[in-house]
Specification:
- It is a single chain.
- The chain has 320 residues and is an alpha+beta fold.
- It contains 7 helices and 15 strands.
Length: 320
């Protein structure tokens, strides 16, 4: 319990408005709930959210200490009263989340609060599975990332050993990720392999594709299989043998089949015609191959997980 004595400069304010300024990490809906269930008292008596504070009033606040901290990038998850997650799978070690397109996984210059990792941390905090104030507390962390405008399955570790193992398995390519995408035109052949080299163009923040080794270039290998065709659109399943930035988007565009909706590598005229502003790309399937020992995660060996809904598939390739 903490106490706050109201000074003359704060007198006259509504209780709820004063507390929202005094504790900016406390979500407004949670603040109203705490007042309602008597976790906020004034001079030892039940408080009302609309009551006007007087100089000398003493507020008794039965609220977790972390809500009294100053806002920082590492505690903004506290402001999410209702975390929104689509959970594909969860156990005591990890979570598999279906990230929706448009949601950024980590904070960037445009978004600090509404990020996937903040929603995960808020969810685990509210379940009382994790608290940053616990001694030697591990901070839940993402094992893989997906671009803001790409959707799909993201792995989150709940403990340090899981993070270590999954990072090792990703590095050793013992986890298979399959994507669905909509490519323009007909892939020729309909099933095959794309080998190239990718080099980042820092000025334009794009990956350039080369068909020969170049200084600084990284090998990129992509397997693909056409699943359906509807007019000029092809639904393609993709498996990455290497995990390079923008690998699918850049290599498909270089092959003459950019992804529908891709504003960086695609065709603006086609995107506008279909009204698409995000690339039609989804990491829809994840399989834990684990040919070598996986320690405490051995129970996942051979298991695969799949996203229930891929919006662009339902929109353009839904069976009649």
């Amino acid at each position: 319990m903490r106490e706050i004595t109201i000074g003359k400069n704060d007198a006259g304010q509504r209780l709820d408005r004063f507390l929202s300024k005094a504790m900016p990490l406390l979500p407004p809906a949670l603040l109203q709930k705490y007042i309602r269930i008597k976790r906020v008292k004034c001079n030892g008596q039940r408080a009302q959210r609309s009551q006007r504070l007087q100089a000398g009033d003493v507020l008794q606040l039965y609220i977790n200490d972390e809500f009294f901290d100053q806002p920082r990038e590492d505690n903004l998850f506290l402001t999410l009263f209702q975390p929104k997650l689509t959970i594909v799978y969860e156990d005591e070690n990890l979570m598999l989340l279906d990230k929706r397109p448009g949601l950024v996984v980590h904070a960037d210059e445009n978004e600090k609060v509404n990020t996937l990792i903040n929603h995960i941390q808020a969810y685990l905090y509210q379940k009382r599975e994790w608290n940053p104030r616990w001694e030697n507390a591990f901070t839940p962390a993402l094992c893989n990332r997906i671009d803001r405008n790409t959707g799909g399955i993201v792995m989150a570790a709940k403990n340090a050993e899981t993070l270590r193992i999954l990072n090792e398995k990703i590095r050793d390519r013992e986890i298979t990720k399959r994507y669905l995408c909509i490519a323009l035109g007909q892939m020729a052949p309909p099933e095959g392999r794309i080998d190239c080299f990718l080099l980042k163009d820092e000025k334009n923040n794009q990956m350039k594709v080369y068909h020969r080794p170049v200084p600084g270039g990284k090998t990129a290998v992509t397997l693909y299989k056409t699943l359906q065709r509807r007019g000029e659109l092809s639904l393609v399943e993709v498996e990455l043998l290497t995990g390079r930035t923008h690998q699918i988007r850049a290599s498909f565009a270089d092959a003459g089949h950019p992804l529908l909706g891709d504003g960086k590598y695609g065709r603006g005229d086609v995107n506008r015609r279909y009204g698409e502003t995000r690339q039609a790309l989804y990491s829809y399937c994840l399989r834990f191959d684990f040919p070598t020992d996986a320690g405490l995660l051995n129970y996942l060996k051979g298991r695969s997980f799949q996203a229930d809904h891929v919006p662009f598939v339902e929109k353009y390739f839904k069976s009649p």
